[in-house]
Structures are given as C-alpha cells and as structure tokens.
Amino acid sequence: MSKKEIVVLEEDVDISELIRNSVDLVEYARGLASKQVNMIQLMTYYSIGKWIVDVQQKGEERAKYGQRVIASLADGMTAVYGRGFSKSNLENARKFYLTYKDRITQTVFRQFAIEKNQTVFGQLEKDPPFKVSWSHYLQLMRIKDDSERSFYEIEAAESNWSLRTLQRQYNSSLYERLALSRDKDAVLRLAKEGNVIEKPEDIVKQPTVLEFLGMEEKAKYVESDLETALINKLQKFLLELGKGYLFEARQKRFTFDEDSYYIDLVFYNRILRCYVLIDLKTDKLTHQDLGQMQMYVNYYDRYVKMDVENPTVGILLCKEKNDALVEITLPKDSNIYTSEYKLYLPDKKELQQKLKEWIAEELGEDIDQM
C-alpha cells in the first residue's frame, strides 16, 4: 500500500467520525429544543389559563361573564396571531390551569409570565412540572378521576407513550385492570408512582385485552389460532403485557423422562429478572391446566434458570377462569397466575363500578357513601 493510499484511508476515518459526531450533536440539540419548546408551550397555556380564571372570578355573573372573557380574548389573540388561540384552545388553557394549578408556585409563575426571566428555565428543567406534550394533556384532562389521570400521566412519561398509545391504554381500561389485580395500598401507589414492577403480581392484568388481534368473538376456535394471531401482532402484545418483556420462543419444546412438552409462549422479564411462561386456553380453565403449568414452572426453575435469576412465573390466559379452583389447586406461595382474555375493549364504566365496589369492600365502607 502506498503512502498516498494510507492518507486517504486516514482522512476517510476522520470524516466518518466527524459525520457521526455531528449527527449525534444535531439529534441531541433537536431533542433539547423539543423539550424546551414543549415546556414553553405548556407554561404559556398554564399562564393564560390562570389569567382567564383570575379575570373571570371578578365577574358578578360568572357564567355569562366567563364565556365573554374567553370569547373576547380569543378575538384579540386571533387578530394578532391568526391561528392557535381559538375559543376552544383558550377553554382548554383554562381547564389545564384548573387541573394542574398546584404544579407551579406563584414565584415560578411570576418569573415566567410577569418578569419573563429566562433563568426560570433552569429550575423548570431541573424539576419539570409537566412531562408530556400538550396533546397528551388534552387527552389526560378528559379523565375525571385524579388518581387515574395521574397514573396515565406517569406511565406516558416514563414509557414514552405516543398519543395513540395513551389513547389505546386508556380505552382498554389499563388503570382499572391493574387496580383490580392489587390490594388497596398498591392501588394508591398506582396514582403516585405508576405501575412499579417489583413482584410477579405486578405484571398481571384482569382481564388481558387482545382487541388488537381483530379476531371475532366466537364460541370455538383452537389455541393455535390465538397463538398465531398473537405472534403476528407481537409488538402490540408486548405493549399489552407491560414493562420489561423480551420474547424468546413460541411452542418451546423441552423433554423430560423421554416425554416432550411444548410451552405456548416463553418471555423473559428483565425488570423481574425471571422467565415468564404463558399458556393459552380457549376453553374454561381446569385443574389439569393449572397442574401442567406448575410442571412447566418447576422444570424451568430446576433446569433452565440460573442461580442469579428469580423464580419462573407462569401465566394462564384463558377464556374463563375460576378463582376458587385456582385457590384450591395451587399452593399459596405459587408463582402461577390466571387472567381472562378479552377480544374486545372492556366496558370502562363496568370496570370502574367493579373497582369502586372492590375498594368499598376493602375499606369496609358503604359504596353509596364513596
């Protein structure tokens, strides 16, 4: 190789590194700018919403006066800026302030909206009061229950949900389904911290919703149909399962005592650091199904998992489960769980009522007084 060729190669390496570093910098800058723009937008809507409320409260006939304040402001802002400050947008700004008014101190509000002091952004970046986009908050503000709204905001921020994903999780009643799988203390924790995965029970939902499969609800179909549909929609199935799942295999074969067995779906949960075995049952759950899953879990615990990993979890997704049968069949410390699956979105009002009844029973209160 000549000296000239060596120089060319070295220059190519330098250029490649220059391109890589430049791309990384631009992506970082764009992400930073996007966060700042989002925070500025949210703080602006918050501040305008606060001013609207402050002015409205001075009116004697609040209902009529309040509507006139928003309509007049919309006309004035539209005259200056054109689009972006319609009456409906300003009503949302007012609602945003009323929903999240405890997030911003009077000092921070004054520095941003009155003094327009740029140093306030350092404080907002260090401890951001809002963590998702305006579009997300428009969806969140439709949720009346404070605990439920807080849960979805935390999950959307931590899991980086798109708006479409947030809408799907809300429509599938994720909060109610998780809450119905927990005790009352864990339900309260959902609102404060989101879905924290610490133990196997935290990954089970009641029910599991598989509406994304597009399968018709019919009296009879074979388990392989359901399994194939799940694999074809694996990304959406992982989203429904929850946090930390990694897919390993379908129809995982293992041989014991010269007999072969097949596990429908094998996952690994990196948060729990354990295998998760899923068996699909398109009929009513039986004690034989539970015994079979117990055998699968025992095999993985004894022959597959490493010493540093946690015990294997087994989940039976079934069309119809029987809690009494599960309780009498499995030991109390069993790592096996059952969940009914639904091929359609559950009735949200029905689940909310069920959750309300469950909480009343847990607290020993009259449901009509809640």
Summary, kept brief:
The protein is an alpha/beta fold and 370 residues long.
State the main characteristics.
370 residues, alpha/beta, 14% strand
Given helix and strand content, the structural type is alpha/beta
The helix fraction, in percent, is: 55-70%
How many helical elements?
15
Topology, number of strands: 6
Based on CA atoms alone, the radius of gyration comes out at 27 Å
- Taken in chain order, the helices and strands follow as HHHHHHHHHHEHHEEEHEHEH
Proportion of strand residues: 5-15%
**Biggest sheet statistics:** 6 strands, mixed
Overall morphology = globular
Mean pLDDT: 84
Question: Order of strands side by side in the largest beta sheet?
Answer: 1-6-5-4-3-2
Which residues form runs of ≥5 with pLDDT under 50? Answer: none
Termini separation comes to 84 Å
Describe the fold and architecture.
The protein is of the alpha/beta class and 370 residues long. 56% of the residues lie in helices and 14% in strands. A six-stranded mixed sheet has the order 1-6-5-4-3-2. Strand 2 (245-256) and strand 3 (259-269) form a beta hairpin. Helix 11 (223-232) packs across helix 12 (234-241). It is globular, with a radius of gyration of 27 Å. The model has no long low-confidence stretch (mean pLDDT 84).
Topology:
Layout: H1 3-56, H2 62-81, H3 87-100, H4 106-114, H5 120-126, H6 134-140, H7 146-158, H8 163-171, H9 174-179, H10 184-193, E1 208-209, H11 223-232, H12 234-241, E2 245-256, E3 259-269, E4 274-284, H13 287-304, E5 313-320, H14 323-329, E6 336-342, H15 348-363
Parallel strand pairs: 1-6, 4-5, 5-6
Antiparallel strand pairs: 2-3, 3-4
Helix pairs in contact: 1-2, 1-3, 7-10, 11-12
